[in-house]
Amino acid sequence: MVGTGMGAWLLAAVLVAAPTPGAVPKPPLTPPPEAADPLLPRDAWNFAETIADLAERIADEYAQEITPEELLVAGLTELYTEAGLSLPNHFRQRAEKASSPDTRRLVAHDARLALGSVATAKGVLGVILATEGFNRVLDPYCGFMPNRNAAIAASQSEFGLGLELEGANGPRWLAFQAGWLTPGNGADRHAIPNPVVFPWRITRVLPGSPAAQAGLRPDDRITHINGDAVTARNSRTLISRLLTVSPLELTIHRPGTAQPIVRKLVREAYVPESFFGVQRWNDGSWDYWLDKDEKIAYIRIGTIESETEESFRAILNALIEKGVRGLVLDLRWCPGGYVVPTTQIAGMFLPEGKPITHITSRHPERNLRSDMAAGSIEGREAFVKLPMIALVGPETIGGGEMIAAALQDHKRCPIAGQRTFGKANVMMPMATRIPGLSYKISTGYSLRPNGENRHRFRDSKPTDPWGVRPDRGWEIPLTLALNDRLQASAERQAIRPRSDRTAVAFDDPLADPQKLIAAKFLREQILRSVSP
After folding, report:
1. How confident is the model at residue 363 (pLDDT cuts 50, 70, 90)?
2. Is there a domain that residue 240 lies in?
3. How does residue 531 score in pLDDT terms, banded at 50, 70 and 90?
4. Are residues 376 and 335 part of one domain?
5. I need a labelling partner for 77 at 20 to 30 A (CA). Which of 206, 292, 423, 469 fits?
6. pTM
7. Three-state DSSP class for residue 40
8. 221, 243, 265: which is the final residue of a domain?
């Protein structure tokens, strides 16, 4: 459920405690010349402990068979590649044969020590970069994540404000946030360069966040914080304010606008919005009527957060009370989210007990839940009878695909649009030795209700059964350019504050051919139902 993302989507926020490290071999008596750095021996052992520990635990929990030795080779290869070097053959051969935890620690230690004081290998940055190499053998969705963002599936770098900045992602950003590997080891945590690109450009704003409520937009440039100008020289100092200080007064330069814009933001707990309608009312709520005369509603699902099922059911109940006769369920840009609320949303449209998904793993005895079906909810009869059509596309990912597959397998409604992304791995956060960071790992896969695979693996072919294909006759192709324009416009509409009346293309149903065809289908269904 986690996400790109965040795709990344989580089964539950369960942290697995790191095992107590065992005895570690002593370092070589004669270290290489690079060890003149007094911090290097300790850093090498910290690196070795963390990498070896992660490799062992990931190999045990990962959804597919993998060995700690394969992970160690991949991690050391990446560490050397980042330093502009090739992993020496003798280290590769030792890592391939390192069949015990202590042996893997010693190999990792020696390989790290041999690199010396290379900037990319130091401290927590070296650990994170090495684990990026794990993805040479794991899927690309595994990796470190900040603990403070574990509760929000929509983002891993939103500063607690709901905005993302260019450069505030990836391993260097994680290292910048986390500091050095072990607090108090004498390393200068400020030595890690600030990876945020200057000038500070907002790349994303989360719907329902303080940044969205303040009217910030992607491509805005932050020029001042609390009156202090952001410069290349003080960028490191001021980025810490963005991470910790509240309230904040941000001065913004918006392309196409001559005068600076000043916005005040308060850092507070919030849940990103997950459901969007046709337009906002003045009170900030959504108008879900696509065709008010025919009582055709429209709901677009975004990131599925941990507590969104009740909100979705409330929307449906309100529409039922107002006499809704048809529903367009838009999953085209749904990046997934948490598994449990996803199954609950899918289950609202199906009879009680109908299977939604089966989660497979190498260790089924460790699963909290494996078979998930439509549960008991009040008002289900009206939801099940409601005529509907679901829209999907290449950016329908994870949880969005789970909903579409359940509706399709049970022949609940037409699935229209384009083939979906093909991501069905279930992820769990794993505790690590690095303060403030967890490691998210794929522990299993979510199958369709009919038992077929949904996940697109590295070697999957276009003819293989991954993702969700539209029903026969319901393929509605869009050019890549039009799809991108519609997605950008939908996201712009979602973050537009209620006071902003600026029109965007997504306000006009005529600009969206897939939505038009879906509405036409429902009108025909309604007409057929009332014809004598």
Report:
1. confident
2. yes
3. low
4. yes
5. 423
6. 0.88
7. helix
8. 265
